[in-house]
Automatic annotation (TrEMBL):
Pathway: Amino-acid biosynthesis; L-leucine biosynthesis; L-leucine from 3-methyl-2-oxobutanoate: step 4/4; Amino-acid biosynthesis; L-valine biosynthesis; L-valine from pyruvate: step 4/4; Amino-acid biosynthesis; L-isoleucine biosynthesis; L-isoleucine from 2-oxobutanoate: step 4/4. It comes from Nonomuraea longicatena. Its EC number is 2.6.1.42. This is Branched-chain-amino-acid aminotransferase. It catalyses: L-leucine + 2-oxoglutarate = 4-methyl-2-oxopentanoate + L-glutamate; L-isoleucine + 2-oxoglutarate = (S)-3-methyl-2-oxopentanoate + L-glutamate; L-valine + 2-oxoglutarate = 3-methyl-2-oxobutanoate + L-glutamate. Belongs to the class-IV pyridoxal-phosphate-dependent aminotransferase family.
Length: 365
């Protein structure tokens, strides 16, 4: 943990907050990432001076010089976590220090300055406290928090990373990520495109990874599938992750998830499920699975369930797989028992309806 001097936040409240009626209208049907709360957090960084000008201010557009470095060289990265309302009104987040630590790992890879973990968590607490009326009361809904950092130096020189940055947090009320309930998704095995290669940025939560992935996600949709599944860059054979979510394979009472080899994103949901699976008496392993093993396991009946996991969509079953020269189904088109059990356990901890044995819940107020 960094022991920098504590930043003091300047607070400037909006004088044009949405009315309660306007807010309720948004909360009645929150589409993921479409509406934002009344305020945002900004903190600036200048090489030599460090982090400064921490503030909570009205949500609104940024004014940036067209030559600002982020527009040209994509020095940017982000985080994603949620605030949940428990019965009785308490608002909490889930493992925010894990997001703070991953944010800093991503920063190191992208040659950006690290933010003290306490400041990351305080920025989230302040925004959620100020905009607490935006945390939904509807079961299964939450306030999605999006911390991010951009390079703000003006100039097109490419030899050095930016000397100035801005960290921000914005918040958006969220309903279920996939509309239509927990129903299995179909996936497309991408063999024409690669998400990440050894030594690249696959383990950093940077926007550039997404920019490079959209073409494959579009290909998945053209192939009649919901989501793309990424394979290793060398052989296009070993499973890495789904576009924006990690994958788990269920062999009866044994779970397998691809190991963190540096080319996939270390999901906090993934990490939590490895722990919860063990709590439930399941064997949870990190390893390697080829698409041939995936198909053969489903055909022999040994591989009983597959699911994807991430903060936004929590746990989503995978029901069918398609590639250039193969296609198969998993299970009977309904979420499997292990998938459902793990989902209930995790969601129960997040919403405060189950005990929190690992102290993952962080109270905000
Ligand atoms: C954020 C993300 C995940 C899931 O991480 P969580 O911490 O569980 O939300 C998985 N893959 C990619 C590419 C991601 O960006």
């Amino acid at each position: 943990m960094t022991t920098a001097q504590k930043l003091s936040f300047d607070v400037q409240l909006t004088d044009h907050a949405r009315t309660a009626a306007e807010r309720e209208q948004v909360l009645a049907n929150p589409r993921f990432g479409q509406s934002f709360t009344d305020h945002m957090i900004s903190i600036d960084y200048t090489e030599g001076a460090g982090w400064h000008d921490a503030r909570l201010e009205p949500y609104g557009p940024l004014s940036l010089d067209p030559a600002t470095s982020v527009f040209h060289y994509a020095q940017e990265l982000f985080e994603g976590l949620k605030a949940y309302r428990h019965a009785g009104g308490t608002i909490v987040t889930f493992r925010p220090y894990a997001n703070a630590a991953r944010f800093n790992h991503s920063c190191v890879r992208m040659a950006m300055p690290e933010l003290p973990e306490e400041t990351f968590v305080e920025s989230i607490e302040r925004l959620v406290q100020t905009d607490r009326d935006w945390v939904p009361t509807t079961e299964g809904h939450s306030l999605y928090l999006r911390p991010f950092i951009i390079a703000t130096q003006v100039g097109l020189g490419v030899n050095y990373p930016s000397k100035t940055y801005r960290y921000m947090v914005i918040a958006s009320p969220a309903g279920p990520y996939f509309t239509g309930g927990v129903k299995p998704v179909s996936v497309w095995l991408s063999t024409d495109y690669t998400r990440a290669a050894p030594g690249g940025t696959g383990a950093a939560k940077c926007g550039g990874n997404y920019a490079a992935a959209f073409v494959a996600q579009r290909e998945a949709v053209e192939q009649g599938c919901d989501q793309v599944v990424w394979l290793d860059s060398a052989e296009h054979r070993y499973v890495e992750e789904m576009g924006g979510m990690n994958l788990f394979f269920v062999f009866g009472d044994r779970l397998l998830t691809p190991a963190l080899t540096g080319t996939l994103l270390p999901g906090i949901t993934r990490d939590s499920l490895l722990t919860l699976a063990a709590d439930l008496g399941l064997k949870a392993e990190e390893g390697r699975l080829s698409i041939e093993e995936w198909q053969a396991g489903c055909e022999s009946g040994e591989l009983t369930e597959v699911f994807a996991c991430g903060t936004a969509a929590v746990i989503t079953p995978v029901g069918s797989v398609k590639g250039r020269d193969r296609a198969w189904t998993i299970g009977d088109g309904t979420p499997g028992a292990v998938t459902t059990r793990l989902r209930e356990e995790l969601v129960g901890i997040q919403y405060g309806t189950r005990p929190d044995p690992h102290s993952w819940i962080h109270k905000i107020g």
